[in-house]
Every structure is written in C-alpha cells, then in structure tokens.
Design a protein that fits this description.
The structure holds 2 protein chains of 2 kinds.
Chain A lengths: L1 E8 L9 H16 L5 E5 L2 E5 L6 H9 L4 E11 L2 H11 L4 E9 L8 H15 L3 E3 L6 E7 L4 E5 L3 E2 L11 E5 L5 H11 L3 E8 L6 H15 L6 E6 L1 H10 L5 H19 L4 E3 L12 H8 L6 E2 L7 H11 L2 H4 L21 H8 L4 H9 L3 E4 L1
Chain B lengths: L1 E3 L9 H13 L10 H18 L5 E6 L2 H12 L3 E5 L4 H12 L3 E5 L9 H7 L4 E5 L13 H11 L4 E5 L17 E5 L10 E6 L24 H16 L1 H18 L5 E3 L9 E6 L4 H10 L2 E3 L13 H5 L4 H5 L1 E5 L6 H22 L1
Parallel strand pairs in B: 1-11, 3-4, 3-5, 5-6, 6-7
Antiparallel strand pairs in B: 2-8, 7-8, 9-10, 10-12
Classes of the chains: A alpha/beta, B alpha/beta.
Chain lengths: ~375, ~375
C-alpha cells in the first residue's frame, strides 16, 4: 500500500485552448515547490499524483503543495491494486471507526467488473460489518471514503480533501512589480496578485542611514516568506534618503509623504520597465492612512503611465491581517523596525492634497537629478 | 575599526580561548563522571579562582550559569515572594524577571532613580517592609554608568528587615570596579563576556548558608543549584579571562577614567550633552546628540569606522530606553542617546579618532536634515 498525494487543480479547466499552457506552468510550479524533497510527479486524467516520497516528510511536502496557486485541493491517499480485497484494506485505513460515512466510487476504467454503485455498496457493507459503530449517511456523511478506479489496474483510496491555495498558476498572468514596505499590507497585496497567476517582482525603498539594516532584513524575510507562494525569489531596493532630505528641506511639511510617494511611483515605474513588469502593485487600502485617500492615490497615479493594481483597496485592516496571518507574513510584518516613512513623518500630513499645490511644491526639487541618484543606489538580493 | 561598545560585549581574549580549548580537547570528560577527575579538578580550580577575586571563598560560593541573565533570573525567581523591591534602573534581566513575578502575584515595587541613573536610597528604603523578600539593585547602571552603593544599601536594607535577601547585578562592575562582597550581599550576578570571556558563561555568587532553590533541575550539578553538564570550555575561558582582566584592574580603571574624560572633552558640546555622571563607572560614557537620533548617528559613525552603542544593546529594538526614561529624560534627549564603552584594549589614539567621527557624524546629519 503506497501513500500518494492526489492534487486537483482549480480554474485551469476553464481555459479552453490554452489549457495545455496553463498545465505546463502549473507543473513547473509544483516541481519548484517540491524541489529538494524526494518525490515523483505524474500527470493523470484531470489531476496530478505525487508518489515515491519520504513519508516522514509528507507533512512538509503537503504544506508546500498547499501553497502552489492553481491547487484546488489535495488528498493523501493509498494506491493499491484494484482487486476487492486490496481496495477494502485501503478503505479501512482511511475510514474512521465510528460515526456516519459513505463510500463514493469513480471509475476511469469503465471495464471494471463492478459499477461504481456496486463497488461502493460492497466496500460500505464490509466496513459496516467490521465496525458496527459506523452508520451510513449518503446525504450528509461525517466522512467520505473515496475510491478512484484507474485504468492501469490500480485504485486510489482516500478520505479527506484538504483545501489548496486556489487561484491560477503563477506565471500565467504576466508580471507586476510590488512596492513592498515591510508592513502588513504589501506582502498580502503581493500574495493576492500571485494568486491570480501574476509573477510578482519586489521593490523596497529604504532610506539609509535613517533606516537600518534590520528594516531591510525584515523585508528580505518577508520576501522569503512570499517566495513560498512562487513570488519572485529576489528583492530590489532603492535608497530614497536624499529625496526625503530634499523634500524635508524645501517643501511644505504636510506634503512630505505625498511627495515622497510620487517619487516612489516614478522610481517604481522605471524599475518595472527594467524588469519587464507590466504594472505596479501596492498594498494601499482606501482611507487607511493619510496618503491612501482618493486624493493621495490620484496624486501618485498622476506621475505614472503603468496601471497600478491595488488588490486591497476595499479591504478593512482586520481582513488584511487575517490573510497576513494565514499566509504567515503577519508575525514578521509587525516586528518593530522603522520603514522609510516614519523618520520624516510630519505631525499633520495633508489628507486631501490638491494636485496643483503638490505640483507647485515639487517644482522646488530637481526631480530628474534626484531620480537618477536614487536609481543608482539599486541593489539586488537573490534570496 | 574602533570598537566602543564594550559594555555590550568585549572581544574575547585569544589566549584564554586557546588555553581552555587545548584543555577540553585533551580532557573532554564529563566533570561529574567517575573518571572525570582531571576535568573536575579544572572546574574546581576555575571556580575558586574566579570567586576569590571578589569574595572570601570561606564566606561565599559560586554557581556557574549560562550568563548574567540566568544569574539574575535565578535570584529573582527563587527569592521573589510577597513583595520585591527593585530599582527603576535595572537591566532587562532583572526588570523582566520582576515583571514575571508580578504576573504571578508578587507585588513589585520600583525604587526611583535620579537623573544619573543611580537609585534614590531613601526612596528605596521606604519601600522595604517586613514582608519584602528581596531587594535587587544593579551595581553599575549599564546605560549611564552610575554606580550604586550596594554595600551601604544592603546594610540599611538588612537593618530594616534582616530576613530580606539582597541581590545585585554586578555584570558591569565585575573585573572593572574594585569589589569585595561582604555578608550583607546575599547574591551577586557576573558575566564572562563583558571582560574578555565568552558569551554563554556567567555566575551567581551566593553567600554561604543563604537558602536558594534551583531553577533548573536535573543531574544535580553545581551543588544541586544548577543542573546541566558543566560548560567547562566556557568556564575555563572565563577563569583565564578574569585572571587577565583582574591583573591590571586598578591601572585600567585609572586609564579608563582618563579616556572617558578625554573623549568627553573632545566631543563638540554644541552637538552633545553628557548623561553619564562624573563619579560613574569610567568604562561608560553616555551622551545625547542634541536634536538628532542616536541610531542614525550610530550608522554614520560605523561608516567612519567607529562602533558605538545606542543605550543598551539588549533594548535596542524598543523605541526608547526604559531606564533613561526613568531618569526623567524626555523625547529629544532619549532619541539622541549614544553609549560609548571602553575596554583595556581601547587606546588614546582611538579615542581621538572616535571623537572626530562622532563630531563629524553629528555635524553631517545636522546639515542633512537642517
């Protein structure tokens, strides 16, 4: 009786003629996720099968599979010859000893001597005989024993369906550049876009010496955590300290954040073109802080041509935190390091800055020179 | 690189590591084993040699621990009942152990400190009553260098409540200030890595006859007070390092005083204000950069090849120092704190260069942010 993991995929079946492409990307992503752990991956009709793995590391393997976008659900099951006794022995392994249950059979091999109904009834009957505390409930069973009769003379028997990450295989929806700050929101935004199949590159702004290496290390750690969801394994950083100093010295204090964000967007757009990303992604949520009002968003959007995706725009903090906890970035995000916004934070940032005022203030700066200088500070970290 | 964060940790003595390493490579037996005689003898010798440097071995005994934090925790957790009095200037190891006691229902009383970080003696004594089980006062405040008169305090605490235990965290005093424990001190914590030993080794020095319960249970090492196979390498290294440090302790002290004052004199006093008291430990000079942030200056100094501390390294992840807040300092001063701490390896040339770097860094930062 060999243990196997059965993987079912999510929306790929919707993709008609592109299906082959989606499946190939999905397969590559699965392989990448399982890299370093012994396994074999097989494609079967409508699903994937992982075999020949080390059972002691099965949980780790399942964890990795569960984070691959495109996985709808997966089950740990048993692969046995499809004769009745073998199937029964496997069924009693996955069936609890008490409570309500049903047996559900699916036959890929239509030449199998029993119909699905007959096989279910046979196995169910034997289970009832052996475990009198079981009861049958075909409508709302506490437990379902699933039997897949395959064409190669084997059967897969499994009990539980574990939820996968859902979404689409990363790499099938183009590439975007995530502005990652080290806070709670931006990693979640990156996760959301990766879930929709987007390849996500990461850009972090720091302001050394006003922020420390701890802040950068924290973002690297977040990037590593996101990499488990196939988000890019590398982090780009730019230093905006001098831009902050210049804004601080020359412009109205209440516009500090607004002006800095405009520079960040410009720098991000330039970086996006360098890495061939087709859009920017931010973790902004409407009204969450002063720069995330519609006026703030308008002022940032005004300086870039690329679309800016804001997957969290309609989310409450609580909802974002929930996802951050689910994907395991929350604990790192709340570590106390200054991100590049706090050092020059004005006492009263402008909440509804007028574009004309912003542009007037910005004229006091040599934007082109500041941009050039900031772009020259680019660092790339392979994680 | 000029290293002026010796209160955080010091460079280990190479000689001490070599000697200890050679010994444990050769004699790797468990000191508690039947055949571990040679190891056991080395352990005994290390214990005696460290203890006799600050206390009479007839009156005190020494329990090796994993460091100052464990020694402090042992003292607090084993002796804390009913009510416990600690100063507001304690190291996190005492403070947090105290908070833990408080959460377990013990009344925790804080004795206020003066602006220099030294405890206010009268205020402390007024908090001690017949139900006080323990008083713990740091010997040298690790953030300001203020020296508490623990002997005077212990005497007066015992006069008020003879059954009250007295503990002092001596981590920043051991090997640096002249210390001779007397019978009023029940427990005293020391650490190896502040004097050229290695992290992971320290000791709780205990007055003989003082009743103490173990924190760690197991094989009954350290007279049953601290189970766990003895870290003979760390312990022997500690003993060698202590011997080295104590050899010139007195001359070092005088030289540190000169270096500290020289550094202070060389600092631009339009840029820096001094927080360390003149009569504090000569190993520590704490200043605040006026209107600037210490952690940014720390990075700018590092770029100039000078490593300095910002307050206590153990609390560097929190926005402000709890201890300096207790001293009465407010936002701007707290933001600008830098701590320079010395070791006998520090020389005058380094002090001059460090002062230049500190002045240049502060001037540059001031120019950058106006």
């Amino acid at each position: 009786m060999e243990k196997v993991i059965i993987i079912r995929y999510a929306e790929i079946h919707l993709k008609g003629k592109n299906r082959g492409y989606f499946e190939r990307v999905f397969c590559v992503n699965l392989e990448r996720a399982m890299k370093g752990l012994k396994h074999e991956l097989h494609r079967t009709s409508g699903r994937y099968l992982v075999t020949a793995f080390d059972e002691a590391r099965m949980e780790e393997l399942c964890g990795r599979i569960s984070r691959v976008f495109g996985v709808h659900s997966y089950s740990v099951g048993l692969c046995v010859p499809y004769d009745l006794d073998s199937v029964y022995r496997a069924a009693r392994e996955v069936c609890p000893r008490a409570g309500s249950f049903k047996v559900q059979t699916h036959r890929a091999d239509k030449k199998y001597p029993m119909t699905s109904m007959e096989l279910s009834a046979h196995i169910g009957g034997r289970l009832l005989d052996e475990f009198p505390q079981l009861t049958v409930d075909v409508h709302e069973p506490g437990h379902t024993v699933c039997i897949d009769i395959r064409e190669n003379g084997t059967a897969l028997v499994f009990g539980k369906f574990e939820r996968g990450a859902g979404g689409m295989p990363v790499g099938t929806s183009g590439k975007g550049l995530l502005l990652i700050s080290g806070g709670i929101d931006s990693p979640v935004a990156g996760y959301m876009m990766a879930k929709r199949g987007m390849t996500v590159e990461l850009l972090h702004f720091h302001s050394y010496p006003y922020t420390n290496d701890g802040a950068k290390e924290k973002v690297k750690e977040l990037a590593r955590l996101l990499a488990r969801y196939s988000v890019s394994g590398r982090l780009l950083t730019l230093n905006v300290a001098h831009i902050q100093e210049e804004i601080h010295a020359k412009c109205a204090a209440e516009l500090n954040v607004t002006l800095l964000r405009r520079f960040m967007f410009r720098l991000a757009e330039q970086t996006a073109r360098d890495v061939n990303a087709k859009c920017l992604i931010t973790g902004e949520s409407l009204g969450q802080v002063a720069s995330q009002t519609i006026e703030g968003i308008t002022s940032s959007n005004a300086v870039v041509k690329l679309p800016v995706l804001r997957p969290l725009i309609g989310f409450d903090k609580e909802e974002i935190v929930l996802i951050a906890k689910k994907i395991g970035t929350f604990e790192t995000s709340v570590l106390p390091y200054e991100d590049c916004c706090t050092v020059f934070l004005p006492d009263f940032p402008a909440i509804r800055p007028k574009l004309s005022f912003i542009e007037e203030e910005e004229k006091k700066l040599d934007a082109e020179a500041l941009m050039r200088e900031a772009l020259a500070t680019k660092e790339v970290f392979e994680l | 690189m000029i290293y002026l964060d010796n209160a955080a940790t010091t460079q280990p003595f190479g000689g001490a590591m070599a000697q200890a390493g050679e010994f444990v490579q050769k004699c790797y037996f468990n000191p508690s084993a039947q055949y571990g005689g040679e190891a056991s003898a080395a352990l005994k010798e290390a214990r005696a040699s460290i203890l006799e440097k600050i206390a009479d071995p007839a009156q005190f005994e020494l329990i090796f621990t994993s460091g100052g934090t464990e020694a402090d925790n042992h003292a607090l957790l084993a002796c804390g009942r009913r009510n416990v009095v600690i100063s507001a200037g304690e190291h996190a190891a005492v403070y947090e152990a105290g908070v833990h006691l408080k959460n377990a229902g013990v009344e925790l009383r804080f004795a206020p400190v003066g602006q220099d970080g030294g405890v206010r003696e009268e205020a402390l004594l007024s908090l001690v009553d017949e139900r006080t089980s323990l008083v713990s006062v740091v010997h040298v405040n690790n953030e300001t260098g203020a020296v508490n008169d623990i002997f005077g305090l212990a005497r007066r605490v015992k006069e008020k409540n003879p059954r009250c235990a007295f503990h002092s965290d001596g981590v920043q005093a051991f090997g640096k200030l002249p210390v001779r424990l007397n019978g009023d001190i029940d427990l005293y914590s020391v650490s190896a890595h502040k004097i050229g030993g290695l992290r992971g080794t320290g000791a709780l020095i205990k007055r003989k006859g003082f009743p103490l319960q173990p924190l760690l249970h197991g094989g009954g090492q350290e007279g049953g007070l601290r189970s766990g196979t003895e870290n003979l390498f760390g312990i022997m290294d500690f003993a060698f390092a202590a011997a080295e440090k104590f050899k010139n302790a007195e001359a070092d002290l005088a030289r540190m005083r000169e270096l500290r004052e020289r550094l202070w004199q060389l600092l631009d006093q339009d840029l820096y204000v001094r927080l360390s008291p003149a009569d504090g430990s000569p190993y520590i000079l704490t200043v605040s950069a006026r209107g600037l942030r210490g952690e940014i200056l720390q990075r700018l100094c590092a770029e100039r090849g000078v490593i300095v501390g910002t307050g206590s390294a153990c609390s560097s992840k929190k926005p402000h120092s709890r201890v300096l807040e207790a001293c009465g300092y407010k936002g701007d001063v707290l933001d600008g704190v830098l701590r320079m701490s010395f070791s006998p390896a520090t020389n005058e040339e380094e002090i001059v260069l460090a002062a230049q770097a500190l002045n240049a860094a502060a001037a540059a930062l001031k120019a950058r942010i106006g």
